[in-house]
């Protein structure tokens, strides 16, 4: 069983929180970071979300992961492992306001690319964003004490949106 699921209404401060966090990460990881992107539900205006900022950091290359990891660990980030078997390394910082979940990604990373497709599609399609919000709230109620199951049950919706977005791009 995973962690408890806590969703809160959209907070209009989240974009500013991300910018503040991004600036700090950019200073820390300047020799390694190419792009720092706001991902996850807090990056989609109006969407209920877990009250933490999800961030993908795209590095120059896989060889930069150890050095970037050392910097994050020195700054109090907790290592959370390679979560997707594609060289995406996760870190948590719980003492931040709001807390942060940071992912180190090599360039051209499939997980990062799919996250951006999903985020950008929901930002531009209100009906799909509303459907996702409804699903998240239902799943949070059903799997209140099982964060892993909550996440797994969203997967079909997420995959369908990514497939739709890619199809529309190709059309």
From TrEMBL:
InterPro entries per record: GrpB/CoaE (IPR007344), NT_sf (IPR043519)
Pfam families: GrpB
Domain of life: Bacteria
Protein name as annotated: GrpB family protein
């Amino acid at each position: 069983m995973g962690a408890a699921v806590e969703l809160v209404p959209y907070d209009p401060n989240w974009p500013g929180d991300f910018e503040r966090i991004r600036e700090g990460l950019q200073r820390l990881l300047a020799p390694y970071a190419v792009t720092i992107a706001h991902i996850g539900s807090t990056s989609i205006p109006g969407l209920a979300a877990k009250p933490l900022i999800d961030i993908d950091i795209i590095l120059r290359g896989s060889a930069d992961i150890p050095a970037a990891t050392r910097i994050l660990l020195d700054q109090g980030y907790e290592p959370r492992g390679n979560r997707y078997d594609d060289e995406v390394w996760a870190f948590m910082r719980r003492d931040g306001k709001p807390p942060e979940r940071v992912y180190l990604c090599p360039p051209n990373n499939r997980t990062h690319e799919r996250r951006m497709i999903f985020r950008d599609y929901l930002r531009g399609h209100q009906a799909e964003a509303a459907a996702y919000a409804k699903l998240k709230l239902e799943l949070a109620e059903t799997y209140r004490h099982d964060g892993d199951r909550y996440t797994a049950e969203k997967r079909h919706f997420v995959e369908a949106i990514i497939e739709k977005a890619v199809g529309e791009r190709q059309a």
